[in-house]
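Exercise: predict the fold of this chain.
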Amino acid sequence: MKDTENLMLAFDKMVLFDGTMHMGFGFRLIEWKDTPVELLLRILSLVDDRTVIVASGVCREWRDAICSGVTRLSFSWCKKNMNNLILSLVPRFTKLQVLVLRQSTPQLQDEAVEKIADYCHDLLELDLSKSFRLTDRSLYALARGCPDLVKLNISGCSAFSDTALGYLAGFCQKLQVLNLCGCVGAATDTALKAIGCNCHQLQSLNLGWCDQVGDAGVKSIAYGCPNLQTVDLCACILITDESVIALANNCPRLRSLDLYYCQSITDRAMYTLAQSRGQNKHEVWTPRKNEDGLMNLNISQCIALTPPAVQAVCDSFPALHTCPGRHSLITSGCLNLASVRCKCAVHRSNAVIPHLAH
């Protein structure tokens, strides 16, 4: 009932006068089915995705217009029966490019993803996060039916295997953003080698809490995906300096690196990161709005690191901040790194000291 009221409210805001759209005057359409497609889509831009689904059932004319005109949908609002809803609706929405199926409790099953792969061949972005019930069948179906995917989120899908993920990588070679956080069965060195060999356009990769990831896999990604900008290796406890060195030397666009709880990382990795910048140590620092190079680095719980090595990284990348309100160099749990300071903090201190002297 509430969805219908929302739709009526949005519809009432749009009226026609002499064939032109106006607010607050003119005559109303006699029948909803006579609504021009452009007006209908504008109305739907004012309401949520749940109401869009309701609108598609108003009449055949609306259904055809909506299903051919809507390219983005989210079903995250659906707390029950998402699986059945997808099975019934997806065959109509064949023009979808963005589909969000994020769940608070697992509902989605393989047959729903297979239906998506059968009908949504234009899909570019798909969010299946927390779909604990999905199996390899889903990845095989997506590989065959949605080869143009550029963004895929399967975080928390712990039932997937590395074989299925490697198969997907062989077909979905346009991937730019891939979230594998918590995919402990799928994110292995074997799968990462397949991704490195096929997904050369990859820009963002989340491997957080994937404890089977090792240096061999990360190095394959670094060598095969030079456009990487964001890499999350949070709690990948098997990686060592070799992974960080490979990323530093082969991914010049790297902007964000998360190494939380990677306790085998040592100063050697930090010095390589610092040197990858290629910046003159004696260059006079001036603040800039759009810094290039590393902008976010999380080394929390990396207890083997020492202040000189981390300070070298901080000096090389002015966009790394330790000052309040701009924290982008995260060192939680590393009390020995308290002396590390970013360049702008040093700059401010140097400016304050002469002032105090007066």
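Check your answer against the key: Residues 287 and 344 are 7 Å apart (CA to CA).
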